[in-house]
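User: I'm putting together notes for a lab meeting next week and I want to include a structural view of one of the chains we've been expressing. I don't have a solved structure, so I'd like a prediction I can at least talk through. The sequence is below, exactly as it appears in our construct file.
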Amino acid sequence: MKYISTRGHAGRRPFCDILLEGLAPDGGLYLPEHYPQIDDAALTRLRQVWHEQGYAELAFQLLSLYIDDIPAADLRALCAKTYTAEVFGSRSIVPLRPLEAGLWLQALSNGPTLAFKDLAMQLLGHLFEYELARRGEQLNILGATSGDTGSAAEYALRGKTGVRVFMTSPDGRMSAFQQAQMFSLQDANIHNLAIDGVFDDCQDIVKAVSRDQTFKCRHRIGTINSINWARLLAQVVYYFAGYLQASASNAQQVSFTVPSGNFGNVCAGHVARMMGLPIARLVVATNENDVLDEFFRTGVYRVRSSADTRATSSPSMDISKASNFERFVFDLLGRDGARIETLFGQTLASQGRIDLSGDPRFAEAATRYGFASGRSTHADRLATIRDNHQRHRVTLDPHTADGVKVAREHLAQRALERQMQMEPERLAQDRPAAPMIVLETALPIKFAATIIEALGQAPERPAQFAGIENLPRRVQRLPADAQQVKAYIERHCAADAGAGAKPQQAPGASSAERDDCHAHMGSDG
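Assistant: Thanks for the context. Below is the predicted structure for the 525-residue chain, given as structure tokens.
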């Protein structure tokens, strides 16, 4: 399996190179040359794997379709080491539970940082350590977080050999619990950078550093954001696990509603659907920062400025530049790299918007690729949290509440459409719509203030996080300036080198090869 850039760069790369590189040299995102297909026989085998061997083996079977430059025995061992009941709280790892008729909740937040990001980050931590040891190299991870990516990445990489983490976050825009999870870490290889701005400013900094090929190569910059294909690939697995739990046979379809800001989580669902997983609909749920909902309704993708990006009670989705969206548009437009370069590399940069409303293929977002969307507000969030607590004794975090609200609307709309289209005698015999699975994003303790506002009481707090807000903090505040972030990285790399932590280079690499950054590793945003 080789990987190509969404913007048409001629290079074809193996998995382990793009694991460490992130963004392609032309600024595009990596995707596989093709999506391996899961036919009925293969899905039956995966169903048996799930029931008899569990999540870790399911992950190995799916990842091995995309990763052929890690020996199978090693990849299986990495999956087994990652997905354990001790780390994720149960053998099923991502258990499914019913909320109400036709609506299910997939628990993805039982990992070390109580958010769905752990499912990919824990694996990436092991993959990074494995591959860096195999190459005899070191890596400086530069990331951007709106709340959950940062803690998941830092907990996965703290203490790991050969890796430093420099994590940018929007100063004051995360919940108190999210800040405490990150900033209380005292590990020497973890650096938290609170940026004066919004998440999009942090992400822009990561991309700016990625475009500086000289700096990127000199300091071995990589990242762990969902722009990195390896992280998105790991997320594909739980779509299969959710489907296999919700369906009784391969003939049955299932839909997913996904709270989304940066489009990474739902893009993994798109990949699963492209592989042949019987997904009827992928419903994108946004908050008031509704860039994605606007696109799926109108065909216009219009990014917002930092000033126009609203601070909401589902802060991890306060994003107005959905970086992974480029991957879907690449598929939507027939994998035309030159056109993606024009749209995302030029038009979006100069005009702040992309308009596909007049392109005949825009309609295929719904008809061929199964996408739908909806929007949720603060009032919706509170009402949904109250309703589920009262009726189901389930407390939802604000982002998951956005998903449940939009999922219910979608199910109601589909039911109405069927009623209008069917004759009464046929309606009585109509089969129920495909089950709808809402992907949980985090446990409610991470957003206690909103839960208290909705319910008048604090959510349950896991014992290991008692008093975390009161721990000493280690964080550096910086302006939204890529040059200052680069200077910070440079100082700390130099300080570590002076203390005897000598960076290593790839065995046998010439100086000319080392000057070509993307020949070894790089970054993403």
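A couple of points you could mention at the meeting. The longest strand covers residues 163-170. The first helix runs from residue 15 to 21.

User: Perfect, that's what I needed.
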